[in-house]
Amino acid sequence: MDGLLKTPLFDAYREKAKIVDFAGWALPLYFEGIIPEHHAVRETAGLFDVTHMGEIVVSGKDAYEFLNKLLSNDLSTLTDYRVQYSLMLNRNGGTVDDVLVYRFSQDKYWVIVNAANRQKDYNWIREQAVGYEVSVNDLSDSIAQIALQGPKAADILNACGFDASEVRFFHFAENVRIHDRLCLISRSGYTGEDGFELYMEPMDAPAIWAYLLDIGSAFGLKPAGLGCRDTLRFEACLPLYGHELSEDITPFEAGLGRFVKLDKEDFIGKSALLEQIAGGLARKLTGFEMTDKGVPRSDYEVCKDGRQIGYVTTGYFSPTLKKNLGLALMDHDCTAPGTTIDVMIRGKALKAITVEIPFYTKKYKK
Amino acid sequence: MTILEGLYYSKDHEWVKLEGDKAYIGITDQAQLELGDVVFLELPEPGDEFSAGDSIGVVESVKAASDIYTPVSGRVVEVNAELTSNPERVNEDPYGSWMVVMEIADHAELDDLMSPEDYKAYCGQEE
Asked: Looking at this predicted complex, what is its ipTM?
């Protein structure tokens, strides 16, 4: 693990977790195991170190105007202390990154970016900002982030002395005291469950991590790794950049059209997307369930009648649904639910059937 | 990590238990610890013939697929079908979870495998 970046929590779990290299960071793949941690998040709660996520602050007189040009979602619907999911597109309509935008005021926003894209995003944002009266700063090194996810997450925060009902879904609160240390808390996450993301000073992170685990143990809280973070987001069909999204994949192809507002004023990628819509989508992200025995994996070919029609973006044995499921980017003509397809697994064509997504939906209070 | 006496061990972390000309083959405790939760197994058919070092199947954990290599040459005489229905048994009881039984041709191949003591030292080196 030499040469890898380490979060301020590394010493808290280095002996307790299987550590892997993720985008240059030494992070836990799992503590006890991917499956038990997955079930803990679905049934009680899990605690994740997500300090590797990047935080870029955009501020200044033109911040609103600039971000509304930079991002696909409609920033005019975002009010103070609310969070919005959005896509940052290139001029071809492909995806530079998918981001969360936190609005502090008309003049100040946080843009939360993927760890693997942090430098690319920062450079891209700065290039696009030319001509706007804004400042763009990468705060990632001075912010730690912990995600508390699962149906017991609100109860755990209540037990920590914070009234979780004060923060509704995709809202946030600043200067919340947890264990006498200040946090910014949003009700958001990447698991398909109710949950919170806590941002704090790196030096405060170990004490908050230990305190949450201590208070949470009575509620069934477990430390959880990136392994189950991926299986959880997969079941909920939340995209992972590099799999369901890339510079060559547009939001419409990825099924994220609801986060693209073509009726707002111009934004980067808009004209390319209008062309794509006018010409009809050639390919689309589709869910499928294996009917033959086999686990689909990223990059496996998808075929129909002996012809390749696409490829798997993510596949797993789903711990919650106990089925072999996959997401694939494939020819639009073959995406109707109930279509029989072949997934090429180790040279064999194994049968699967396309299904509605998301695979898993939790009814929690939003 | 558990290493049983009376078994032969390969560098790819398979174990072999010999009964006459029959070799029971599975993966070691170290292998299942390294893999994590096993969710899927693909095994050969009875009658299939393999040389030592061939891939005879695949064990899949949540994250990835890994080959299973036979440490000895021979013909598959039996496959553990119960295990393909309950792959989590590999984690719960790796040495009770034989995957295939091979009828082996050449007992001398066993000399190339490790004793429990050597395998223990080998696992220590890998860490």
From this structure: 0.86
Contacts of A324 in chain B (CB under 8 A): 40
Please state the domain extents for chain B: 9-121
Delimiting residues of CATH 3.30.70.1400 domain(s) in chain A: 54-140
Query: In terms of CATH architecture, what is A10-50+143-235?
Result: 2-Layer Sandwich (3.30)
B62:A35 CB<8 A: yes
Report CB contact under 8 Å: A231, B62: yes
Query: Which CATH code fits B9-121?
Result: 2.40.50.100
What's phi and psi for A68, nearest 5 deg? Answer: -70, -25
Q: Beta partners for A19?
A: A28
CATH class for the region spanning A282-355: mainly beta
* Assigned fold of A54-140: Alpha-Beta Plaits (3.30.70)
User: What DSSP designation does A130 have?
Assistant: T
pTM of the predicted protein model: 0.94
Q: Which element (helix H / strand E) includes A266?
A: none
Map A190-224 to HEC letters: CCCCCEEEEEECHHHHHHHHHHHHHHHHHHCEEEC
Judged by a CB distance cut-off of 8 A, whether residue A294 touches chain B is yes
d(C-alpha A279, C-alpha A281), whole Å: 7
Specify the 3-state DSSP secondary structure of A306.
Answer: coil
Res A1: pLDDT = 72
Please state, as a whole number, how many other Cβ atoms lie within 10 Å of the Cβ of residue A173: 17
Tell me whether residues A33 and B37 touch, CB distance under 8 A: yes
> What stretch(es) of chain A map to CATH 2.40.30.110?
282-355
**pLDDT score, position A2:** 77
pLDDT tens per residue across span A28-67: 999 999 999 999 999 999 999 999 999 999 999 999 999 9
Name the β-bridge partners of A331: A283
Could you say which of B36, B42, B58 has the minimum Cβ distance to residue A33? Answer: B36
Q: Which residue has the tokens 């939001």?
A: A251
Inter-axis angle of helices A118-128 and A63-70, to 10 degrees? 120
pLDDT digits (tens, 9 = 90+) for B20-79: 999 999 999 999 999 999 999 999 999 999 999 999 999 999 998 999 999 999 999 999
CB contact under 8 A, A35 and B37: yes
Rounded average pLDDT over A227-246: 98
Which ranges in chain A are annotated with CATH 3.30.1360.120? 10-50+143-235
